[in-house]
From TrEMBL:
This is SEC14-like protein 1. Signal peptide: none annotated. Residues 332-508 form the CRAL-TRIO domain. The gene is si:dkey-237i9.1. Residues 3-175 form the PRELI/MSF1 domain. One of its GO terms (biological process) is negative regulation of RIG-I signaling pathway. It comes from the Eukaryota.
Amino acid sequence: MVQKYQSPVRVYKHPFELVMAAYERRFPTCHLIPMFVASDVVNEETSEDGSTIRVERRCALDVDAPRLLKRIAGVDYVYFIQKNTLNRKERTLHIESHNETFSNRVIIHETCCYSVHPENEDWTCFEQSASLDIKSFFGFESTVEKIAMKQYASSIKKGKEIIEFYLRELEDDGITHMPRWSPFSCSLSIPRPTSLITSPPTIPRLAITPAVIIPLACDEKDGALLESKQDGSVVQADSLAEILAGTPEDKLDADYIKRYLGDLTPLQESCLIRLRKWLQETHKGKIPKDEHILRFLRARDFNMDKAREILCQSLTWRKQHQVDYLLETWSSPQVLQDYYTGGWHHHDRDGRPLYILRLGQMDTKGLVRALGEESLLRHVLSINEEGLRRCEENTKVFGRPISCWTCLVDLEGLNMRHLWRPGVKALLRIIEVVEANYPETLGRLLILRAPRVFPVLWTLVSPFIDENTRKKFLIYAGNDYQGPGGLVDYIDKEIIPDFLGGECMCEVPEGGLVPKSMYRTPEELENEDVRLWTETIYQSASIFKGAPHELLIEIIDASSVITWDFDVCKGDVVFNIYHSKRAPQPPRKDPLGTHGITSPGGNNVQLIDKSWTLGQDYSMVESPLTCKEGESVQGSHITRWPGFYILQWKFYNMPACSATNLPRVDDVLATLQVSSHKCKVMYYTEVLGSEDFRTACCDVQSLGSMTSLESSHSGFSQLSAATTSSSQSHSSSLISR
């Protein structure tokens, strides 16, 4: 595999001619680079007018490699050929070098360029690129690659320091200015301190052998002298100024990286520059900011291929859903403003934006039912987009790179109702989208007042969170956050929210239960056309007198668990569960026209054939459950046999008065409220393996009774007396009124 390096633009705030004088002092040897033991001038040419000087050197390097490896290779020194072209008229120095030793096994190619800064002619720019391709090396390819990259990274880091050292040396010698070249000037004389002009040490010479260089394809060249046109062709640039023109948004500068992106190793800088350059050449849409590119590289430990893959997927997702314009186009619905218990609150001690989420006070089920998963996800994405914007602002305010934020989650009030399975599923999907598109944006997560139910939620959620992100979690139970090592270590005392014992007023909504009058059907939510994923948790069904809605579930393994959650949106229904050993006929949809109804949404399917006989062709495995309009029903059924289970929602017929066969007045009025004898339910079902269900039950039992659910009672509790855990199926259902 070819390893590549591309440096940022490094700026010396000195004129080009003075930098060249400092550069010449590096030869024939440099005590600041111990591995650079000697160099000989092999060839030197000067143009007629003296403007161009070409120098070819043969350099010897004492590579820091294991002695055994050197003995196997049969060498003590590694030789490189360096070709320098100094154009004093254009004020550029182009450097090309390649390895002479082992050139048939290892190919090293490096290009460097010194040139005048495009915006200040008294400053000098430097760029560097290199490639390493190890074909074979006595079975030590991986070791040689690591040694080479380590040595190269070390020399790069010292490069700027060495030039600055010789610039100071020139100043100490009284040389602070060097004249520019002109056609009438004499040849440039570069004074050198006599202490450095010494004979190189005696070293064993190797016969000069022609270097075998594999030319790089145009689209793979990282050299500073290449420029891409819009048509995709690559041309030679007359000078680096053509490439460097513009601000850091066009070309990355080393000082800009340190100021806005932080301290990066040379190889990390190279990954950032190369990935950014690749995006500029291939991506047709909006190029993300450098901070965002860097987040994807960090998320994949600066593996270029992996980072490029997830970044491209994210850019496609952003373009498809117009996420770049989310902050301008998204307006939070009133229900979010009133019941979503989260908001931004100053910053932490490190200058990171601080987001507070009072999860324990949030009605997750009510928000999902009132808004739908799409709107809730869009709101979470807007929070992340706002977080990116605040990071940029804080970077400018505090004068140092700030690329992530801190999140404080208060879990006071968290209980079993927050483990509502569809709500947890929606949460996991949101986490999945955020992890894929906003990596490395969470600097720290402070979880306060974690209750006993928290381990269950953590068990469900943690597998979907990246390992690097999980390491940033700090969890405090009870009032532990108030002691040493608690909240004050991360947040200034002056901005600790009042509800956590601080003195700062926090504008985060207190939440509460979302009124059920605000709940909406899937059809209503789909009409808003804000879909960010295609799958939805709930399905909607219409139920008519004489036309129930039925759902088929095939069970392969006995003792599986069928779970359900449904809301009765309109009318009263009867819920039944049946079992059959044979599969029903293909489902048929009830023709609504027979009921004189045209329904814009919802479906109605019948599975039980009218010729089937109850007790012979199919059997009832649970007693019927009557559910009133507005009720929410949750339950589960542990299957005893494999086969086909049918969940049925049936129109509830009002019982007649016992004294007469005539219906009561209240019954007639109630019937009139259900127009055209139509009921409607929103439902969600899932099948769990018995082991998964037992694990969940053990977690719940360790935390306390299921009756901790507020405003709930067991609708199937009467069934427990007629069943046993060993030979009968067991079911429980929780009805919220």
